[in-house]
């Protein structure tokens, strides 16, 4: 069994409540029996429950990085608190007695091996993954429905531009909300969410000038999505055999949910990657009706900043695992990279955790961009595209963080300044209230993860400090 840490066990828990309950079981000595096989690939035991009979639980590590949880309890939570408690007991040093593998688990292992062999045999042949067969008639039918939906959206956008945002009243907003529901029949949930975002913006109370500025920005984004989406879909309708768009996020922005098999087929799977999380935040996306657990990770070999997004729709939030901060390095056997730049979304099925060491922190600092001018140029070139990520994140090296009046600036070795002027995430604590509490050494010759956003009112780039990376730790300023 690979060494497991508390951070790894925490990452397996579906939510914070399950983590707490699992730890509490260990504190209360609820495990009268704790066992481990001689090869240390299986943990199993018994946990006291509400009935006379204890729950029999196990965690099987026969496949590294992909543990199998089993428990006799009726909980719908997966993994349940009993299997988590079993892992916490091991991590916290509770004694496990050596024992043979139970017959019922041995049988399940054997069946799993046969299923895997059958799967591998069917995927053999020339050694390549079989390509998916596309039903052309069904695809064309779907594309026509999408084009019809974009046509409806285009008419609405033109009406809004012609009448002006200042003429919007409650009746017009109600019409827009009806259009949002109508777009649900046209297989373009991404475009539907963008229109809902416009409705939410225009329904906001407060400074109307600010609301209009944000509304104009969203209208520009909608117009670009309609124009590029129609062109792309018309081309695919004429040539259904054409490959899907992978150089941009257009497919996802229209609403396509990428499958791992598709990403592998399009060559977007990378082997053996090490990732370290630099920042994490959970927020609510009202336009899409979901909670989002977002993490920003650095590839310790390439220096690329990737993002992970765990999406929990409002209606199913209780049934979906809630992600949390990760303080360990994740070693993935296969990393799936979604289309998009500069912070492409990533995902993995199997991964092992290892503790972070000073070598990793120094590696992150060495990967940070030394010149603010080059970073700003890259950000500006990216945001020229209306469909680009509104909040690109970069890893930069700074010589000092300095306070000037009520604001802070980042300064690089060339003397270029980068004002920290924004609190982009409304739910986060402004970094300005934390920076005075840091030691002086943390603010000199370090690296920082920063988020940019174009302020349409001032025409300037707004900057949010997310994390500071030193030789010995990561100081997270966004949560």
UniProtKB/TrEMBL annotation:
Disordered: annotated span: 111-131
Keyword Zinc-finger: yes
Any one Pfam family match given in the protein's UniProt record, by short name: SWIM
Keywords: Metal-binding, Zinc, Zinc-finger
Biased composition (Basic and acidic residues): 111-120
InterPro entries given in the database record: Znf_SWIM (IPR007527)
SWIM-type domain span: 55-91
Protein's name according to its UniProt entry: SWIM zinc finger family protein
Organism of this sequence: Paenibacillus oenotherae
